[in-house]
Design goal:
The chain has four helices and no strands. The chain has a single domain, classed as 434 Repressor (Amino-terminal Domain). It starts with a helix and ends in a 10-residue tail after the last helix. The protein is an all-alpha fold.
Length: 68
């Protein structure tokens, strides 16, 4: 589980790198600027729909699992 903004930044940048993508390509796929995406990664301010699009772009599914 990601616990803070720094962990989110490293996690997302790592997943982009694993898939041969960079922030510019992510920004293009989200229809926004590279600067905007960079700031939003640092601040961890994506909404659920945007995170779902990012996960899809990277080949992941978001799954909600009930805790025990």
């Amino acid at each position: 589980m990601i616990k803070n903004k720094i962990e989110f930044e490293y996690f997302l940048k790592g997943k982009l790198a694993e898939n041969g993508l960079n922030i510019s390509k992510l920004a293009e796929s989200l229809g926004t600027s590279q600067q905007n995406v960079s700031q939003r990664i640092k601040k961890a301010t994506f909404d659920y729909i945007e995170l779902s699009k990012i996960a899809d772009l990277l080949g992941y599914d978001i799954e909600w699992i009930k805790r025990k």
